[in-house]
Amino acid sequence: MARTAQGAHLLITGAAGGMGRMYAQRAVDEGAASVVLWDRDAPALARTADELGAIARGRTLVRSYAVDVSELGAIAKTAHKVRRDVGDPDVLINNAGIVRGNRYFWESHAGEDVRPTMLVNALAPMYVAHEFLPAMIASDRPSRIVNIGSAAGTLGNPRMAVYAASKAALNGWSDSLRLELEQAGHDHVRVTTVTPSYIATGMFHGVRGPLLAPILEPEVVVDRVWKAMLAGQALVEMPGTVRLGRFLRAVLPTRTFDRIIGHGFGVYRSMEEFRGRD
């Protein structure tokens, strides 16, 4: 793919604000042909679309669609509208996500925590990708799928069992999809899996960054992910201690890892004061 998104067609979920909006603005700034924004927050989505449209000044087509990706049937309906109105994207950024935490699994209610978390974080990216992959494969244009996973999907952590499960599912599916595309010879479609630690977006308001894993600034993450997407990089781990943690989890006995890394480095206490967004 080119060194910028100029001329590309992008679709971004969770695009009304936060990092989703940052990805969209990056696309507009680089002269993308079109940027399609999905989010369930219709008022915020409309404001973002208007603001980005003003920045684009006609150079980039900006379209927004209010859709709750936890409603899996709505994904297919909205994808049909996108194909009718704009066409298929050649870059998909599965950015939408939710987190519920600061209580133990048995204290949560399945309908309140488990179902929506698994739907938004794990199932929705699969359904969205499934809608647009056939056109990506059939096209001769370089195509990209970026799946925003989490370091939580690589390492268990108290008070976020459901979130960790949803991101473990996303991480595993994303990398398997990458391998399937390579095995099938569709080398022009690249998949990037992103596994960051905590990011200062408000989504994890109140968390405490463990030792050697400071809370990441969203601008830094967006820049790193964007460059990896353009390059077709398979995996983005931020900070580097995420990779170190995976290595140590594999080589150390479980109780030794718990004692030294989990408790000693404060990983297992990081969610104790989590509040999230209001």
Automatic annotation (TrEMBL):
Q: What is this protein called?
A: SDR family NAD(P)-dependent oxidoreductase
Q: Does the keyword Oxidoreductase apply?
A: yes
Domain of life here?
Bacteria
**Alphabetized InterPro entries for the sequence:** NAD(P)-bd_dom_sf (IPR036291), Sc_DH/Rdtase_CS (IPR020904), SDR_fam (IPR002347)
Pfam family membership, one: adh_short
Keyword list (alphabetical) reads: Oxidoreductase
Matching PROSITE patterns = ADH_SHORT
Family of the protein in this entry: Belongs to the short-chain dehydrogenases/reductases (SDR) family.
Q: Which organism is it from?
A: Agromyces aurantiacus
Q: What transmembrane ranges does the database entry give?
A: none
